[in-house]
Design a protein that fits this description.
Elements (H helix, E strand, L loop, with lengths): L1 E6 L3 H12 L7 E4 L7 H6 L5 E2 L19 E2 H14 L4 E2 L4 E7 L4 E6 L3 E9 L22 E2 L11 E5 L3 H12 L3 E5 L10 H12 L3 E4 L4 E7 L2 E6 L7 E2 L2 E4 L7 H7 L3 E2 L2 E2 L12 E3 L12 H18 L11
Parallel strand pairs: 1-2, 1-8, 2-5, 8-19, 9-16, 10-11, 10-16, 11-12
Antiparallel strand pairs: 3-4, 6-7, 7-8, 13-14, 14-15, 17-18
Length: about 325
C-alpha cells in the first residue's frame, strides 16, 4: 500500500511528490498518476515557446514556502526544472493512466484508487489536476429556452425516472450512462462512431453490459444535426435517414473539456456553490483527501508558485494527521 497517491503530474502534483520525499516518505510509497503521456501537459501544449511562465499570483510578490521555487521562466526553463525535480527525487510517475474512481474505506484510513490499468491502495490521496475550462459544445445551435433540459454534467440537479439522451463516446459518457441508469432513467447514448475508442476497458465493459441487459440503448454511427424546442422538451434530429426525430426529457453532452467538478462530486467532496469546501492544508471534507494547485486556488486558478506552496501546506497537514514524517536534508 502507498503512503500517498497523487493524481496529476503538473507543477502541483510534481511538487507534492517532492514534498513527500523531502518529508521522508520513501520513493516506493509515493505514486503519481498522469493521464497524459508526459508531465506538465498543459504547459507543453498551450504555452508558446516565447511565453514566460510567470511565478507571481495576481500581482503579489511570489514567496516560496516549500522545497520548490521558480521565478518567471521560459517554457523550456520551467519544463527543465520540473524534469530535474522528477529525476532528483526519484518520483514514480505512471503516464497514460486515467483515474476514474476514488473510494474511501470507512473502516480504516485507506483509499482505493481505480484506474484504467489497475487498482491501488493508499493512506492519503492528493488530487492535483488542472482546471480545463468550459465543456465542449456541439457545432449546431442549442435553444436557449431549453437551458434547463440540455446539460453538460449530471451534478446540476438530480435526474430520476426520465428519458435521457447522453451524447459522447468517452469515459464521461459511459459514467453518465451508468449513473443515470442506476437512478431509474431510460437512457440512450448517441455516438458518431461505430465503436468506442476513447473509453477505458472498465467503462466500456460496464456500458456494453448495460446495453446487453437492455438498460442503455446504444445509437452508434449517429450524428445529431439539430435540437429544437418541442413543447418544452428537446427534440433531437439525426443525419441518418433510419433515425427519426426523438423527444427526450433531457439531453446531456459529454464531449470533453469539462472542469473536474463532476468527478470531485462523485467522490463525495462537498461544494459551496462552484467551489469545493477546503479546510486546513487544502483538505476536503473526506479525511485524507486533499485538493492542491488550481483546484485550491478558486475558479480562476493559481500560479506555479501557488501550486508549489499548496503542495507544501498540504504535506504539512498530512504529516500532522496521517503519516509519520521526518524532514530529510537533500542536495537540491
Amino acid at each position: 500500500m502507498y503512503q500517498i497517491i497523487i493524481i496529476g503530474a503538473g507543477p502541483a502534483g510534481i511538487s507534492m511528490g517532492v514534498e513527500a520525499r523531502n518529508y521522508g516518505v520513501s520513493k516506493e510509497h509515493v505514486l503519481i498518476i498522469e493521464k497524459a503521456n508526459e508531465h506538465s501537459f498543459t504547459i507543453k501544449k498551450y504555452y508558446p515557446e516565447t511565453k514566460l511562465v510567470t511565478a507571481n499570483y495576481k500581482g503579489f510578490t511570489p514567496v516560496c514556502t516549500g522545497v520548490m521555487c521558480l521565478t518567471d521562466s521560459t517554457k523550456h526553463e520551467t519544463i527543465s526544472y520540473l524534469d530535474k525535480a522528477i529525476e532528483d527525487y526519484q518520483l514514480n510517475v505512471h503516464y497514460n493512466e486515467t483515474v476514474y474512481k476514488i473510494e474511501k474505506i470507512d473502516s480504516e484510513q485507506k483509499f482505493k484508487v481505480y484506474t484504467d490499468k489497475s487498482i491501488y491502495e493508499s493512506k492519503v490521496v492528493a488530487v492535483a489536476v488542472g482546471i480545463l475550462g468550459k465543456p465542449n459544445k456541439p457545432d449546431y445551435p442549442l435553444p436557449r429556452s431549453l437551458k434547463d433540459k440540455i446539460l453538460f454534467d449530471i451534478t446540476s440537479f438530480e435526474i430520476k425516472n426520465s428519458k435521457v439522451l447522453v451524447v459522447g463516446g468517452g469515459d464521461s459518457a459511459s459514467e453518465y450512462c451508468q449513473f443515470l441508469s442506476a437512478n431509474g432513467n431510460d437512457v440512450t447514448l448517441s455516438y458518431r462512431r461505430d465503436k468506442f475508442i476513447r473509453m477505458n476497458d472498465i467503462n466500456k465493459e460496464s456500458l456494453l453490459a448495460l446495453a446487453e441487459a437492455g438498460k442503455v440503448r446504444l445509437l452508434l454511427n449517429s450524428n445529431i444535426t439539430k435540437v429544437i424546442d418541442k413543447n418544452g422538451k428537446p427534440e433531437v434530429h439525426f443525419k441518418e435517414e433510419n433515425l427519426n426525430p426523438e423527444i427526450f426529457d433531457y439531453v446531456i453532452y459529454a464531449l470533453g473539456g469539462s472542469t473536474p467538478e463532476n468527478f470531485l462530486k462523485t467522490i463525495g467532496i462537498e461544494f459551496s456553490g462552484p467551489q469545493p469546501v477546503l479546510k486546513e492544508g487544502y483538505e476536503t471534507n473526506i479525511p485524507g483527501l486533499f485538493l492542491i494547485g488550481d483546484l485550491s486556488a478558486g475558479k480562476k486558478g493559481g500560479s506555479i508558485i501557488w501550486a508549489f506552496n499548496s503542495a507544501n501546506s498540504a504535506m504539512r497537514k498530512i504529516c500532522e494527521s496521517y503519516l509519520l514524517c521526518e524532514i530529510e536534508e537533500r542536495n537540491k
